[in-house]
Amino acid sequence: MQESENRLFKFPKFEDLIIFEDDDLIVINKPPFVASLDDRGGGEVNILRLAKRYHADAQVCHRLDKETSGILLIAKNPQTYRAVSMAFEHRRVNKVYHAVIGGTHTFEQLVVDLPILNQGNKSVSIDRANGKAAETIFNSIQYFKHYTLVECKPVTGRMHQIRIHLATQHAAIVGDGMYRGKPVFLSQIKKRGFTMAKDQEELPIMKRFALHSKNVSFSIEGKDYAFEAPYPKDFATLVKLLEKFDS
């Protein structure tokens, strides 16, 4: 318990994560390294627990991977939870993610339509025979010498969908070791003037995979919603350094 309480103080206040709130809905810009929901161990601080401290009836309407940052929708009552959940289920929610991938890739409305099988234990695979339908649309939005910033639009919502679909294009997200994505080190892109102490180990620019939920839009009960979440510090720093040293 002590460890989880200590970790709590490292997170911003829940109120500081909120980018929109009305009588029915809370929208936050989820920081990386925080789970959306309770894990089986139950000991870690997560968004659901923080949200319930803020509003007792709060329910997280969908989930982001623990390392993924960005827009997360939280209902303040059962009716809104049902409405948003149904919008996701019927694919009426428009979701846009940004990712930094290894290599230079020109994606122009590239549709990856490959079924995904959830194998349990947070592991998935492409399985044409037994997998569930999964579709993602990719567009390149900024090119660097060795990397590409990509817009990802998942039509469906399978576990690890964007990550594994990019990997099938030999374009894994940087830092995503599960799908052979390699981290970015400053020494790789800053060829001149990079120095480090001899006994110091270089850490990657981002200590997670570079995936961010940027935009979400939908309509429920005749009301239109559209949200945008700015990059967190680590993602913004990576893009800035690529612009400076890898353009």
TrEMBL record:
UniProt entry keywords in alphabetical sequence: Isomerase
A Gene Ontology molecular function term of the record: catalytic activity, acting on RNA
Superkingdom as given in the UniProt entry: Bacteria
Domain (Pseudouridine synthase RsuA/RluA-like): residue spans on this chain: 24-167
GO terms for biological process, alphabetical: enzyme-directed rRNA pseudouridine synthesis
Entry-linked Gene3D superfamilies: Pseudouridine synthase (3.30.2350.10)
Stated family: Belongs to the pseudouridine synthase RluA family.
Protein name: Pseudouridylate synthase
Lineage of source species: Bacteria, Pseudomonadati, Bacteroidota, Sphingobacteriia, Sphingobacteriales
